[in-house]
Structures are given as structure tokens and as C-alpha cells.
Design a protein that fits this description.
217 residues; alpha/beta; 6-stranded mixed β-sheet; 6 strands
Length: 217
């Protein structure tokens, strides 16, 4: 809990600067997406030694490097649907998700967290600590898996997942659990292991928008 709180506080400390980056950008939605993906570096699964300098470097790389995927398809999908389910991933990262969610129609968004603690994944306590619960509806998924394994989630979450017109999914764990699910999903992540990079078809460390869309947005 102490480590998670430390990363939430650090992300909140740099949140105003990130907001300014978005507000000053001529492509504000894309910048918010890039920052949200940069936040995915805060993951103790593959690396428990993440520190502020690594986060800062990742932000710089995410803003200046190539973004793989179709940002316009995501933007159109967000505008065209009525119900968006945003699947959170890690503590600290949740603040970067907040930057992107501020660019979305808030009344359409439900943000999902883990049902209980696992690694450094975000829970309801993290959503409350970072102000997410003041912005949008927040729902826990009823599971302690480090990913969204639908059959392990609560009935309330599964009903919300089924009703969603669009799912925005953060992180590798959610990608591993949902990449074969028949649903309109945009996966936002950094490819942090060779297997995931190979599966997506990208270089290791790449910031990625991977879309799985059944119908035209």
C-alpha cells in the first residue's frame, strides 16, 4: 500500500504539467493517448524497480516516438458510441488514464479497477486517492487477477462489460485476458515483453493502440 501510494502521489505531482502538455498540443486527444500509454510503464509485474526517472524518460519517448495504431479510429469510436468501459491497470498509471478520460465525454464513461489487491494493480482505493471517483462512475471487477478474466469477474462487472459499446483496455494483463474476446476493444499499452510484442507485431517497448473492432466506428 505504501509503494502504491508513493506512485499515486508522484503521478499526481506531475499531473498538472501533463495537463499543460495536452492543453498546449495541437493534437490534444493524441497527446492524451500517448501520455496514458506512457503511464503503462508503472508495472511491477515485469519490473519492480520502476522509478521517477524511468517514468519521465518514458513520457518523453511516448510524446516524441512513433505511436503504432489508428488514433483516428479510436477518436471516431469514442464520439460515435453511448457507453464506454475503460479498464484500468496499475496504480500511478491511473492518473495518466485520468488525463485521457478528461478528453472523453465523461457521462459515457465507466472506469473499472481490480476487485482486490494484486501486485500494484489499481483498486477502488487508488481510484479514490487519485480523484477518478470524482470524475466518472467507478466499478470494481470483483476479481484479484492481474488482468480482466471475464469468467472470474463479478456479475455486475460482466453485465457492464456486455452493455458497453466500446471498451478501452489498458496494459498487458488486460490484453492477455481479452485479446480473443469478441468485443469492440481498443488496447492501449506498452509492449513490455517479447511474447506480447511478437503477438501484436511490434518492437519491444513500443507504445501501441491495438484495435479489435467488429463493426465500423
Amino acid at each position: 500500500r505504501q509503494v502504491k501510494d508513493r506512485f499515486n502521489r508522484y503521478a499526481l505531482d506531475i499531473y498538472p504539467l501533463c495537463q499543460k502538455m495536452i492543453n498546449r498540443s495541437s493534437v490534444s486527444f493524441e497527446t492524451a493517448v500517448r501520455l496514458a500509454i506512457a503511464g503503462n510503464i508503472i508495472d511491477f509485474g515485469p519490473n519492480s524497480q520502476i522509478g521517477p526517472s524511468v517514468i519521465d524518460e518514458t513520457i518523453d519517448h511516448a510524446l516524441s516516438g512513433q505511436l503504432l495504431g489508428d488514433i483516428e479510429l479510436l477518436s471516431k469510436a469514442v464520439r460515435s458510441v453511448d457507453n464506454i468501459l475503460y479498464l484500468g491497470d496499475n496504480c500511478g498509471e491511473i492518473v495518466f488514464d485520468r488525463l485521457l478520460i478528461e478528453q472523453l465525454p465523461l457521462h459515457k464513461v465507466t472506469f473499472a479497477v481490480r476487485g482486490s489487491s494484486v501486485i500494484n494493480d489499481a483498486t477502488l482505493a487508488d481510484a479514490e486517492a487519485t480523484g477518478m471517483t470524482d470524475m466518472v462512475k467507478v466499478l470494481d471487477n470483483g476479481s484479484d487477477a492481474p488482468g480482466t478474466i471475464i469468467e472470474n469477474c463479478s456479475d455486475a462487472f460482466r453485465q457492464r462489460f456486455d452493455r458497453a459499446d466500446l471498451v478501452i483496455s489498458k496494459g498487458q494483463g488486460n490484453y492477455e485476458a481479452l485479446s480473443d474476446v469478441d468485443k469492440d476493444i481498443f488496447f492501449l499499452l506498452k509492449a513490455k515483453c517479447p511474447l506480447i510484442a511478437q503477438h501484436i507485431g511490434c518492437d519491444l517497448g513500443s507504445p501501441v493502440i491495438f484495435s479489435r473492432v467488429k463493426k465500423a466506428a
